[in-house]
Structures are given as structure tokens and as C-alpha cells.
Specification:
With 95 residues, the chain is an all-alpha fold. It contains 2 helices and no strands. It has one domain.
């Protein structure tokens, strides 16, 4: 609003040429363009933070799953060894 008022005031007072008003518009346009670029960086930064947080959760979940799987594998290996020994002893009785 202030910019429009300035624009009309300058036209009325005839202090600026048309070229200067065009350059003012270019300057403002460039400023807005740069602000837009910076806002995109901010959006990118925030989104990367969200994604990194979610990835950390996935890593934690998968680490817990891996640890539980490792424990289950160890239990299964012990059971396999025990069953193999028992099978060997039963084999002695059958044969």
C-alpha cells in the first residue's frame, strides 16, 4: 500500500522518470525472488529435520528388531545343539 502511495506521489510530483519507477519494480522483484529462495531453504531445512527424525526412529526400530532376532537365533542354535545331542543318544538306543 505504501509503495503504491509512493508511486502515485512520484508521478504527481514528477520527481522520477518512468525508467526509475521500472527499476524500483525490478529491485523489489529481485528482493522478493531472493526472499522466496531463502524461504525454500528454510522449508528444505525443516523438512530434512523431520525426515532425519523419522529415519532415526526407523534405525532404532530396526536395531531393536535385529537385537531380538539375534537373541532368537541364539536360542534356536542352542535348541538345535541340544536336540542334535539328544537325537544322537536316541540313535544309540535304536541302532
Amino acid at each position: 500500500m505504501l509503495q503504491k502511495l509512493k508511486h502515485y506521489t512520484n508521478i504527481v510530483l514528477n520527481r522520477k522518470s518512468k525508467l526509475d519507477l521500472d527499476n524500483d519494480g525490478k529491485i523489489n522483484s529481485y528482493r522478493e525472488e531472493i526472499q522466496g529462495v531463502f524461504s525454500q531453504f528454510r522449508l528444505m531445512y525443516d523438512k530434512l529435520g523431520e525426515v532425519n527424525g523419522e529415519l532415526s526412529k526407523v534405525i532404532d526400530d530396526e536395531t531393536n528388531i535385529a537385537e531380538q532376532s539375534k537373541k532368537r537365533i541364539e536360542i534356536a542354535q542352542k535348541d538345535l545343539e541340544t536336540n542334535s545331542k539328544l537325537q544322537k543318544k536316541v540313535e544309540d538306543f535304536i541302532l
